[in-house]
Amino acid sequence: MDNIDLPQRRAQAKELLTLLNSESLFTFQLPVRPPENATDEQLQEMNAFYEQVKQQVDKQLDEVLTYVASQFTAEELQEMIALVQTPVGQNLMNKLPVAINKAFAYITHPIMEQASSALWQRYMQIFNSPPQTKKDDKPHGFTVLDGGKNNDDNNGDDNPDDS
To answer: Mean pLDDT of all residues in the chain?
Structure first.
C-alpha cells in the first residue's frame, strides 16, 4: 500500500481502535494522585517525569497506528468502522473476545492434557521406559514432555505444570 493516504488511514485506525473500546490507549493519565502534602517542587518533578513518559507512550501509540493503518486500505478501514458502529458490530465486539477466550480455554487445555497423557502412555508401552532426552536433542516428529519424571538430565526445566 502506498503512503499517499497514510495520514487518512492513521486517522481511521485511531477511530477504529477507539470504537473497539480501546480509547484508553489514547488517554494517558497518572494512575495515582500525589499526596496532599506534596511540595511544589515535588509536583513539578512529577509533572516533568509524566511528560517524558507521555511522550514515550505517544510515540509507541503512533507506531501502533502506523502499523494498523499499513495493514488495511482506507476503504477497508472505513468498512470496519461502519460495521463496528452497527448493533451487529457492537454485539460482535462485545461477545467475540469472550467467546474466543472461553472456547480456547475449554478446548485446548483438555485436548493438550489428553494428547500429552496418550503420548506418554504410548511411549511407555512402546519403549518400556521413560524418554531419555538431552537439552540439544532434536525432535523426531513429536516432542514428549515428561515433566521431569525419571529424567535426571533435564532437572525439571521442561515441566509444563510449573507455570
So the answer is: 76
Question: pTM here?
Answer: 0.52
What's the DSSP call for residue 103? Answer: H
- pLDDT at residue number 138: 53
Q: Are 25 and 17 a contacting pair, CB within 8 Å?
A: yes
C-alpha cell at 29: 493519565
Query: What residues does each domain of the chain span?
Result: 6-85, 109-162
Q: For cell 504410548, name the residue.
A: 122
Residue 113's nearest CA partner among 137, 147, 156, 140 is 147
Q: Is the pLDDT of residue 155 over 90?
A: no
In three-state secondary structure terms, 34 is: coil
- Separation CA 54–CA 29 (nearest Å): 8
Cβ contacts of 20 within 8 Å, gap of 6 or more? 84, 93
Is the confidence at residue 29, as pLDDT, over 70? Answer: no
Q: Select from 162, 17, 33 the least CA-distant residue to 77.
A: 17
Cα 131 to chain centroid distance, Å, stands at 33
Side-chain-side CA neighbours of residue 33 (13 Å): 3
